Predict the structure.
Amino acid sequence: MMEKVILIRYSEMHLKGQNRKIFEKIFMKNLKLALGDIPYTLVQIKGRYLLENFNSQDSNKIVEKVKRVFGTHSISVATKVKSDIDIIFQCIQTYLKEYCLTKQTFKIQTNRADKSFPLNSMQISSTLGGMVLKNFKNLAVDVHNPDYLINIDMRENGFTFISYATIAGAGGLPVGSSGKGLLLLSGGIDSPVAGHMIAKRGMEIFCIHFHSYPYTNLQARQKVEQLAKLLSTYTGKIQLYLINVTDIQEQIHKLCPSEMMITILRRFMIAIADKLAKQIGIQTLITGENLGQVASQTIEGITSSNAVTSLPVLRPLIGFDKEEIIARARAIGSFEISILPYEDCCTVFLPKHPLIKPKLAEVERAEKKLDIEKLILAAFENMEVVEFKL
Amino acid sequence: MQIIYLDNAATTIPDSKATEQAMEFIQDKFYNPSAIYRQGIFVHTALDNAREGMLQFLDANRTHNFIFTSCGTESNNQVFQFAVKSNKNIVVNLGEHPSVYNIAKHLEQKGYEVRYAKLARSGAVDLEHLLSLVDDKTTLVSVMHINNETGAINNIDRIAHLVRDKTKNHRCYVHVDGVQAFAKITYNLSENIDFYTVSAHKIGGLKGVGGTYYKKNIPFTPFIYGGGQEMGLRSGTENVFGNMQFFYATSNRMANLKQCWQNVVDCKSYIQEYLEKELFKILYVQNNSPYILTISAVGLRGEVLLHMLEEEGVLCSTGSACSSNAKYKYSRIIQATSLKNPEIEGVLRLSFGYKTTLAECKQATEKLNSCAKKLKAKLL
C-alpha cells in the first residue's frame, strides 16, 4: 500500500512557549480556509501537520495553496508506506525508474523516530543506498550535492514517509495571531508589499483606498481591487474600503495654497483611516511610505501626516531602496498589477512644485479654512466596502 | 438611464436584422463548409456567394479577391508580413492605427527598414512627405482611408496613383486600412490599391470578424497555416455565422448609405454649431469624415470630462488618459498633428453610426456644454 501524503512544517511557532497552542490553532484554521472545499483530512503530529486522504490529482493544487499560508515553513509531498526496508525500497525504485533515466547522483537521508526499528538511521540509509546502486547502474552517490535527495522519515506508528523534494513555504506567523492593521492601499508598487510584509508577521490586514472618480477612472479602481484580491490569496481574506476624496481635493484646491495640496490631502487620508480603524476595532495603520522617495515622504511630510492619528503607523518599507521593493513586489506577484498605467489619485490637482519640507504649524494654519469634520463625514457617507476571499 | 452612444468608431451595435438573417448558420445549417456531403457544400456555397457580394459592394469583382479573417488587425498584419522584404523599405505614417503602426514597429525591430510619413495639421497624411520617402526600394506603402482619431479622409486613390507612378519600375504594394470608411462612405475600390482591409464590428457586424480585399494575381501568402480555407490564405474552420452576418450587415449598410451619410452629416453639424465656443474647439475640420467629430475642451482634461459624461449616459472616447506617464498620457496620433498640450489634454472623440439619431446628438450637445461648464467652474 502506497499512499500519497503531504507534510507541512511550520516556522517559528515552536518558539512561542505557552502561546504555542494558540498559534497552532490559528495556523490550522488558516490552512483549512486556504484549502477550501478540496477534500482531505488534516492531523497534527509532532512538530508538523499531516495532510492525508486527498485525491492525488489535487496534490499540486494543495501544495500551491499551502505554500502561501503564512506560518508554513516547508512542504513535502511524500509517499506513506509500512516501515519495512523492502517496501521502502520498492517505493524508491518506482520513483527512480520513472524520473532518473540519465547518469545522475543521489543521496538518502533518514530520520528515525521509531527507535524500535532494528536498524539505526545511518544503517537504513546505507542499506537502501546499496540496494539503489545495485539496481540502477546510471546512479552514483553524492552526499554533498546530489541531483536527488531522498528523505526517509520513519515515524513511531509503524509508517514511513518517503519524499524527494522540500518546497519552501511563505514563512512568518499565521495571519490573525498578531492583531489587526489597516493598510493604505494605493495602486502603486509599495503599499501591497508593505501589506504583505506585515501580514507575514501574522497581522490580519484590512485595506483602505482613496480615489477621485471621475478624475480617476474605473480601471484604476479595478487595479486596486486586483491588488487587494492578490493580498487575500496570502491572508485568506481582505476587506477593501473605498473612499472618494474628490470633494476634499476640490476644497483644498480652492481654499489652500497649491503647494500644500499633497501634504493636506495626505493628512485627510490618515485622519480618515484613523477614524475607520477605530470604528471597526483595528489597532494600527500600515503604509508603504519610504523615506525620501517622493515629496510627501520626507521626515517633515511624515511628521505632518502622523500628527493626525493617535494610532501607531507601521511603515515596513521605510528604509528600503526602490529596487529592493520592486524585487519583493515581483516575488509576491503584485508588480505586474502595480505598473498598469492608471493613476490612483488624479494628477489634475497636483502642483508642479509640492512642498518638500512642510512645517506642521503652517499646514495646520492653512487647513483652518476647511471644514475638516464635515468633509471627513461626507467622505465616510459614500464609503464602499468590497470583500475578497480565497 | 438612457444611453447615448457616441463611440461608434470603437464599435457599433450589432445589426439585429443581419443577425437574424445569418441565424440559420448557427442552427440547422451548422455544417463544416469543408465537408463534402451536400449540407457542407451548401454552407460553402453560401460563404462563396457572400464573398462575391463583398466584392460587389466595392465594385471590385473584376480586379480583386476577398478573404474573411478574424479582424482588421489580423488583416493588416498579414499584408505587412507578406510585403516586407530585407534590404528594401516600407513606408507608413504616424497616423496609422496600432494594428498597422505596431506591426511596422515590430518589423523595424527585426531589422527591416520602416519609414514614417508625417501628418498634416488636418490630421491627414502629409502627402508630399510621404512621396519623398518612397523610392525604388519601397515594397509597401500603407495609408489608412479614414483616420480613426482625427476623422481626416486621406485621398487614397490619388495617393495610390502617385505611388504607382513613382514605383513604375518595380513591385511596390499599396495597402489601405479601410476599417473606418468601409460601408460608411461611397467608394469603389481603385485598381491601384493592392490591399484594402476591413472590419465587421464597425458597421453593425460582430467582433472577431474582418476581411481583406487583395488584388488578383498577387502571390499573396498566408499568415496562419492549416486546412487551406479561404483559398489557402487564411486557414482555420470558417466563422460561418460571423462571416454571413458581416455580409448581411454590409448589405444593409450599403442599401441606405446615402441616407445614413446625410444623417451623420446633420448630427455632426448640429453638434459643431451648438457646442459653446468658449468651452470647446473643433479640431480637424478640413476634409473630414462626418462619422467622426474630434473636439477639445481646451484646458480641461478629456478623461475627466468623459467620466462626467458617462455619468450622464453619454459614451464617447478621449485622446488623453489620466496618467502621469507620458507614454500613456496622450494619443500618439493626436500628438502627430502638432496640437499644443492643453488642446491635446482636452480631446474628446464623438463618433456616429448607423443607429445615431439627431435627437440624441441634441441631448448630447447640451450635456457636453453643461459638463464642461461644471468642470471648469470646479477647477477655477
The mean pLDDT of chain B is 95.
